[in-house]
Amino acid sequence: MKTIKDAKTFDELLDIKYGKVGTANRDEFDNKSKAFMIGELIKEARLNAKITQEDLALKTGTKKSYISRVENGKIDIQLSTLYRILEDGLGRHINLTLV
Questions:
Q1: What is the pLDDT of residues 26-68, one digit of tens each?
Q2: Is the pLDDT of residue 24 over 90?
Q3: Dihedral angle at the C-alpha atoms of 72, 54, 78, 39, nearest 10 degrees?
Q4: How far apart are CA 35 and CA 94, in angstroms?
Q5: Alpha-carbon span 12 to 91, nearest angstrom
Q6: Average model confidence (pLDDT) across the chain
Q7: Whose CB has fewer CB within 10 Å in the chain, the N or C terminal residue?
Q8: 94 in Cβ contact with 41 (< 8 Å)
């Protein structure tokens, strides 16, 4: 059985640590990492806009605690809420591309 030390690429590392793509453990990891990335993008845009989590919550009809959980990748955000946060709250536009 391979260990993390045996990994030569990042994909191999993920396969060893979380399982192959399509397994439950890997799917959970992938979902959490995507939530983290979205949260980081929102946090960066908010900081660039020089507004607080409270300000963003007021602009989007949410709560500060919700914005905090989104930014920390702790919750699964709905697409409609993502649009509201980025467009209404931060004045940014989002394009969705399906591959």
A1: 999 999 999 999 999 999 999 999 999 999 999 999 999 999 9
A2: yes
A3: -30
A4: 16
A5: 39
A6: 93
A7: C
A8: no
Enter the tokens of residue 25.
């453990």
Structure tokens that stand for 47 in this block: 């900081």
What's the per-residue H, E or C state across 10-77?
HHHHHHHHHCCCCCHHHHHHHHHHHHHHHHHHHHHHHHHCCCCHHHHHHHHCCCHHHHHHHHCCCCCC
Length of the chain: 99
CATH number of 4-89: 1.10.260.40
Q: Where are the domains of the chain?
A: 4-89
Q: Residue 20 has which token pair?
A: 């192959």
Q: What is the DSSP letter of 86?
A: I
